[in-house]
Amino acid sequence: MVYAFLIHTLTPGPCRLLYSSVFVHDPQINEVPTDDERATRKEQLLQVSQRVQSEYSFRFVASGDDSPEDLAGLSSTNELMSSLKSGVFRLSPGNPFNAEKVVLWKGLANSGFTLICEKDENRLIAENVLDHVIRHLQEHCQIILQPSEAILKVDRVITVIYHFLPNGQLLFMNNRYLRQVEKELEQVMSLKKE
């Protein structure tokens, strides 16, 4: 199961959490979180975003690039997707969550996309789902080059997340199932444009 999906900034400076979707899996938690719980959760998600930002910055510096990535020549979604940097790391219990989690992230320019998963989750499926989510966010929101679109087009972001991460479940998607999900997503998005 996925604990949370995040969209955040990556460039040096303060990390901004632009969008977060937390999937609660504890059957004992059926009430709306209190303000304190909400603030704690937001702080935890921001800590994860900052760590992803730090890893992304380290990889950028370690690669020896002196200038920011040149994205002017990248116009298609496929070109942008192939340019994404990625990483995986573990969060030990208590840092910042009570249980151990695994974080998968991908990013480019100033857009970071992060999945916080349970420790025993299938990472290949998680990475595949993250790729599909990013691809469709780019197609419907142009989010890689304009991360603020996560705030401006939150209804589209929610729709993409709902189709590819229903209630935080990572689903194995063969080609047939993927085509069906994409077809349903296109139908919903066409209604939003009207």
Automatic annotation (TrEMBL):
GO BP terms in the entry? double-strand break repair via homologous recombination; endosomal transport
Query: What GO CC annotations are associated with the protein?
Result: AP-type membrane coat adaptor complex; cytosol; late endosome; lysosome
> Which InterPro entries does this chain map to?
AP-5_subunit_s1
UniProt-recorded name of the protein: AP-5 complex subunit sigma-1
